[in-house]
Every structure is written in C-alpha cells, then in structure tokens.
Design brief:
The chain has 193 residues and is an alpha/beta fold. The protein is built from seven helices and nine strands, in the order E-H-E-E-E-H-E-E-H-E-H-E-H-H-E-H. A five-stranded parallel beta sheet has the order 2-7-1-8-9, with helices on both faces. Strands 4-3-6-5 form a four-stranded mixed beta sheet.
C-alpha cells in the first residue's frame, strides 16, 4: 500500500521522513526518494538532484511512477515503488497536494496523509530556511491557506497530522498509521491468494 505524505513547504515532511526511516527496521516499509530538479543542496531533503533536461528525458522514457511540477521545479517518484508494492512493502512517498487526485487515479488504495502546521509556526520555519524571499514565503502561505480551506474530494479521506509541536509526535502518528495498515505476508505478492 502507498502512503502519500503531503504538506506545505516547511511543514516538516523531510524531518518526519528522516526520523521515520530510522524506525522502520522491523517493518515492511520503504521510503521512496524523490527526483528533483534542484541543485545538490536540497535543503535537508534526501532526494536525487538532476538537471531539468535529465528529468524530462527520464519522464519521456516512462521512467517515473509519478511526476509533477510545482514552484518552478519538477518532481518525480521512480518506478521502483511499483516493485516494492508488488513485493508486499508499504511505501511512503513525499507527494504534492496538487497532484493528489492524479496519484489516487494511479494508486486507488493509497493512504493520503497531510502534515499540517499552525500558520505562525510555518512562517517561522520558512523564514529560518532563508531559501526564499518574503514575497515567495507569502505566496507559499497563501497556497497553504487555500488548500486548508478546500473541502470535498481534494481533502476527503485524508488523514491530518499536526506537526506544529515536537517532531516525535508526528513520527509516532505516522508509525501508528503504518502499523495499522494491512499488508501481505512476507514473501507473498499483494495479489496472491
């Protein structure tokens, strides 16, 4: 089963995933690395940096399970997730809120998780990263507020986890989700009867 983690920039997705990965040793769960068209300094994200040309070539060749554009960058999730899912692993991906509907079409059984952060905490985190101008941060805050205000199919069936406080609280919520999901027995493919 696919766990599709999303949240605004600054919500702590990368921190949650890094802390979560250290706790997955005895669980059949893998975290996929995103491929991103950003420089080698990915700002804490454990992703694979590629040029836009390399990204487009891989995308054109069908080398991504999922791919999208956001904030002037291109993001992709490699095809290895399909192998992991077929082998019975739970797979966690760092996704995009805007791509959720398409991800659900591709993986109808996915579990969508939205990391939420109080606006003041989010603004503080974005400012402390010093990667964007004040205008860019304001635009991010506006997009985050717009998504939070949306209701209906975009947020239906989405598990909300608050990451305004201690990181461990959000990590524990993710671990509870992972432990609650049904998974095939080790060594069996998802469709095996």
């Amino acid at each position: 089963m696919l766990i599709y983690l999303m949240g605004p920039s600054g919500s702590g997705k990368d921190s949650v995933l890094a802390a979560l990965e250290r706790r997955l040793e005895n669980r059949r769960c893998r975290i996929a690395r995103r491929i991103v068209t950003r420089g080698a300094d990915l700002g804490g994200e454990e992703a694979i940096a590629v040029s836009f040309q390399a990204f487009e070539a891989r995308e054109s060749a069908g080398g991504f399970a999922m791919s999208w554009r956001a904030n002037g960058l291109a993001y992709g999730i490699g095809l290895e997730i399909d192998t992991w899912l077929a082998d019975g692993y739970l797979v966690v991906v760092n996704g995009s809120r805007a791509y959720l509907d398409e991800a659900r079409r591709r993986y109808p059984q996915l579990e969508a998780v939205l990391l939420e952060v109080e606006p003041a905490v989010l603004r503080s985190r974005l400012l402390s990263r010093a990667r964007e101008s004040a205008a860019q941060i304001d635009a991010r805050m506006a997009r985050s507020a717009h998504f939070a205000d949306r209701r209906g199919s975009a947020t239906e069936g989405v598990l909300h986890i608050d990451n305004s406080g201690p990181l461990e609280r959000a990590v524990e919520s993710m671990l509870r989700l992972i432990d609650s999901l049904p998974g095939p027995q080790e060594g069996r493919s998802p469709g095996a009867g």
